Amino acid sequence: MKVKSIGVLTSGGDAPGMNAAIRAIVRTALHHKIAVYGIKHGYNGLVHDDVIECDRSSVANMLQRGGTILGTARSAEFETEAGMKLARQTMNTHHIDALIAIGGDGTMRGAHEFSKKYDIPIIGLPGTIDNDLFGTDFTIGFDTAVNSALEAVDRIRDSASSLERLFFIEVMGRCAGFIGLKVALAGGADDVLIPETPTDIQALANKITENRKRGKTFSIVIVSEGDEAGDAYTIAEKIKKLVREDYRVAVLGYIQRGGAPTANDRCLAATLGYEAVCGLLRGKQGCMVGQIDKRIVFTPFRDTFTKKKTIDPQVYTIIKTLSE
Fold first, then answer.
1. CA quadruple 233, 236, 240, 246: dihedral sign
2. Which of the four pLDDT bands, split at 50, 70 and 90, describes residue 112?
3. What is the pLDDT at residue 152?
4. Which of 17, 45, 53, 97 sits CB 3.0–4.6 Å from 261 for a disulfide?
5. Radius of gyration of the CA atoms of the chain, in A
6. Residue 143 has what pLDDT?
7. What do you get for the CA distance between the two ends of the chain, in Å?
8. In sequence order, what are the beta bridge partners of 51?
9. Burial class, 75, CB count within 10 angstroms (exposed 0-12 / middle 13-18 / buried 19+)
10. What's this model's pTM, rounded to 2 decimal places?
């Protein structure tokens, strides 16, 4: 089928660089004389016919903006047969031939089910700060989230040093420790606790105690929100009982999602947005476009959310070694 019009949506949690991806998709499509429709609020907009036609001016002056101009939401209705039928009707109403969906694993699951049910050409773009999608080295928004968290860690380090305190800094990563690892390595943390590795509270307490004996006056521990031992406050209380030392907790939360995307995220988003449109024109569908070892790859939707993307154990080892 020749693609004459494309719909683009952003779904799930927002990520810096989504706007850069939308811009690339719109302008690449228009370059190829393909009509583009922006679908507002993710799959929910597809169900409820919240659609706008895009031109070059629609995506002007947005490369540097965080968030997503299309808005994003999770849609329980889209997961039902009736909801998908309405979504298909919306596509028919606007004569949309294919879709590009930007988001995380939930977005890829939705795209997989929708494309399978109605044989619709769909390509996904990895847009999530967690960097947990199989099929790409980096996801759109990850680099910005790491840099935002690192800036906060650097500021907190000043207070930790001045107050001579133990700080626990919680970063996002409910199911994956990619942000925690990068921030811990770049921020010179004393330790990092992530979902992928077991957490030994006693060993961490011993390490903090040994650091004090060597004359270190403060410590910084990075905690991924999904760590098996609990959140940063829970872990801090457990450590306090063992080291008998006061502590402070900083939960960085949504500041990691906001703000202008970094150059790396803008370039990645632009590249993947361009390749997604070109992929559809070449007949690609039912897959996510990503970048592995600087090569563009197309990974089947099912693999993106059923296969586990693993952390680099070498990074974890380096953090442990440098903090001794």
1. negative
2. very high
3. 94
4. 17
5. 22
6. 97
7. 60
8. 39
9. buried
10. 0.93
pLDDT score, position 303: 97
Instruction: Give Dmax over CA atoms of the chain in angstroms.
Output: 71
CB 265, CB 20: distance < 8 Å: yes
Domains of the chain plus CATH, in order, are 5-141+261-306 (3.40.50.450), 142-257 (3.40.50.460)
State the virtual CA torsion across 18, 19, 25, 26 in degrees, nearest 10: 150
C-beta atoms surrounding 312 within 10 Å: 11
User: How do 35-39 and 51-54 pair as beta strands?
Assistant: antiparallel
Q: Which among 219, 144, 131, 212 is positioned nearest to 177, based on CA atoms?
A: 131
Q: How far lies 7's CA from each of 58, 87, 92, 121, in Å?
A: 14, 12, 11, 11
Catalytic residue of the set 130, 132, 143, 191: 130
Does 324 score more than 80 pLDDT?
Answer: no
| C-alpha to C-alpha distance for 249 and 10, rounded to whole angstroms | 33
Is residue 299 helix, strand or coil? strand
Q: Give yes or no: 130 in active site.
A: yes
Q: Count H helices, E strands: the chain?
A: 11, 11
Question: For the CA atoms of 313, 150, 23, 36, what is the dihedral angle to 10 degrees?
Answer: 60
**How many Cβ atoms from other residues are within 10 Å of residue 282's Cβ?**
11
| pLDDT value at 229 more than 90 | no
Nearby residues of 106 by Cβ (< 8 Å), 6 or more positions away: 11, 12, 74
Count of positions (residues) in the chain: 324
- Rounded to whole angstroms, the Cα distance separating 193 from 277 reads 39
Query: DSSP state, 110?
Result: H
SS3 assignment, position 134: coil
In whole angstroms, what separates CA 10 from the centre of its chain?
A: 12
C-alpha pair distances (Å), 77 with each of 102, 203, 256, 283: 19, 47, 29, 29
